[in-house]
């Protein structure tokens, strides 16, 4: 029989990790540097966090996220893995093509105002199907929807050459929108699904 943990037992001790850094050190610059360092560990194959149950239990009653990541729902871009972050370290707001709507913006605002994150990072990625669908000609048979309409407004689909340029423009436009909405430091980056590397496009 599966040995369920005793619910009356105290949570296991949690090894020191970056999210336990004192709150006064959690500047936006520190938060961005922490994410960049985590991605470097991920690319080098030296990730620290294996997402163990003990870490999940330890974070259950006192999560202290320091960043919110606005990213794509794409299955190839799990943000906790990409940035080598443990339970309780980051909030993830994910929509197709990281397209913003009222609920997504409100979620980011809650991360800032309620949970006190120091940084909001907008994360686009290469080979994004939502960007590709936005750039596809109407003759392709793909129907426009709220996601592609949002992306089209951000990139100005006419005249954009290539998915890479469109992705970068969409990230920058999303950063601009959030900077005017959430009252927090906002940066932008693009994740390369072929290499695992994150390129920062706009700093705090």
TrEMBL record:
<protein>
    <recommendedName>
        <fullName>carbonic anhydrase</fullName>
        <ecNumber>4.2.1.1</ecNumber>
    </recommendedName>
</protein>
<comment type="function">
    <text>Catalyzes the reversible hydration of carbon dioxide to form bicarbonate.</text>
</comment>
<comment type="similarity">
    <text>Belongs to the beta-class carbonic anhydrase family.</text>
</comment>
<feature type="compositionally biased region" description="Pro residues">
    <location>
        <begin position="1"/>
        <end position="19"/>
    </location>
</feature>
<dbReference type="Pfam" id="PF00484">
    <property type="entry name" value="Pro_CA"/>
</dbReference>
<keyword id="KW-0479">Metal-binding</keyword>
<keyword id="KW-0862">Zinc</keyword>
<dbReference type="InterPro" id="IPR001765">
    <property type="entry name" value="Carbonic_anhydrase"/>
</dbReference>
<dbReference type="InterPro" id="IPR036874">
    <property type="entry name" value="Carbonic_anhydrase_sf"/>
</dbReference>
<feature type="region of interest" description="Disordered">
    <location>
        <begin position="1"/>
        <end position="24"/>
    </location>
</feature>
<keyword id="KW-0456">Lyase</keyword>
